[in-house]
């Protein structure tokens, strides 16, 4: 089955918000999309370990409330909320930093909508603040754009096996992937500007993000 990447990207909704958690400044990267499936099927796709491995990354651990999960080669954390079939919240622990992921599934007409929020602290002098100053919402946002793409492909062909790692690596260097990095980096820059970031700063951070994903030398390195 062919997959219309442009249509998928157009169906995505992206926002950036400034906030706080326990008195510490945060940035919230939020992505959402409606899919042509049922809320029950969408919930299963984002909470069933076997299915997660077919569209995102292999996952292991105790996948229930209070348990710890580990995405192979990526983040791990604690499952803080699990309310089937509509709400999942976990800590996102990676590179010595902790952030928070909140996922909600809701009915949307004849389909189902997935809303994802990734919250990270950006207090002055922290690693999070330095990372945000360099890349803005892009590295997190583009990563989730790619995950949503994988989910959309999986929901369109739910019986398809997990992509071969070599095929994934080949695609990541393809013209289609490079176009995705550029388009989604720009889209997240627009969301960042809407949150109040000056346009020159947001655009420069988006270009650094695009270069990062494309494996290029950052423009100001």
What attributes characterize this protein structure?
221 residues; alpha+beta; Alpha-D-Glucose-1,6-Bisphosphate, Chain A, domain 4; eight-stranded antiparallel beta sheet; 8 strands; 43% helix
Description:
The chain has 221 residues and is of the alpha+beta class. It is 43% helix and 30% strand. The protein is globular and about 45 Å long. It starts with a helix and ends in a 7-residue tail after the last helix. The model has no long low-confidence stretch (mean pLDDT 93).
Provide a concise account of the structure shown:
The chain is of the alpha+beta class. Helices cover 43% and strands 30% of the residues. It has one domain (5-164): START domain (Alpha-D-Glucose-1,6-Bisphosphate, Chain A, domain 4), CATH 3.30.530.20.
Topology:
Elements: H1 5-11, E1 13-21, E2 24-35, H2 39-47, H3 49-55, E3 59-61, E4 68-71, E5 76-83, E6 87-94, E7 97-108, E8 111-121, H4 127-135, H5 138-156, H6 165-172, H7 175-194, H8 199-214
Antiparallel strand pairs: 1-2, 2-8, 3-4, 4-5, 5-6, 6-7, 7-8
Helix pairs in contact: 5-7, 7-8
Whole-Å distance between the termini?
Answer: 41 Å
Low-pLDDT sequence parts: none
Order of strands across the biggest sheet? Answer: 1-2-8-7-6-5-4-3
Largest sheet: 8 strands, antiparallel
CATH architecture term = 2-Layer Sandwich
């Amino acid at each position: 089955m062919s997959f219309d990447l442009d249509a998928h990207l157009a169906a995505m909704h992206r926002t950036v918000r400034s906030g706080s958690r326990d008195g510490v400044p945060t940035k919230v990267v939020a992505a959402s999309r409606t899919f042509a499936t049922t809320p029950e099927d969408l919930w299963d796709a984002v909470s069933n370990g076997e299915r997660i491995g077919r569209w995102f990354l292999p996952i292991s651990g105790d996948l229930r409330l209070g348990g710890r999960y580990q995405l192979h080669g990526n983040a791990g954390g604690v499952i803080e909320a699990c309310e089937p079939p509509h709400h999942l919240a976990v800590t996102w622990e990676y590179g010595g930093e902790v952030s928070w992921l909140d996922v909600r599934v809701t009915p949307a007409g004849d389909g189902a909508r997935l809303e994802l929020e990734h919250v990270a602290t950006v207090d002055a002098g922290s690693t999070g603040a330095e990372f945000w100053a360099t890349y803005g919402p892009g590295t997190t946002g583009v990563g989730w754009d790619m995950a949503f793409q994988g989910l959309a492909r999986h929901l369109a062909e739910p019986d398809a096996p997990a992509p071969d790692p070599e095929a994934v690596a080949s695609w990541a260097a393809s013209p289609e992937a490079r176009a995705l990095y550029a388009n989604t980096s720009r889209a997240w820059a627009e969301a960042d500007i809407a949150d109040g970031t000056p346009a020159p700063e947001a655009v420069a951070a988006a270009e650094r993000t695009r270069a990062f994903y494309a494996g290029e030398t950052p423009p100001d390195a």
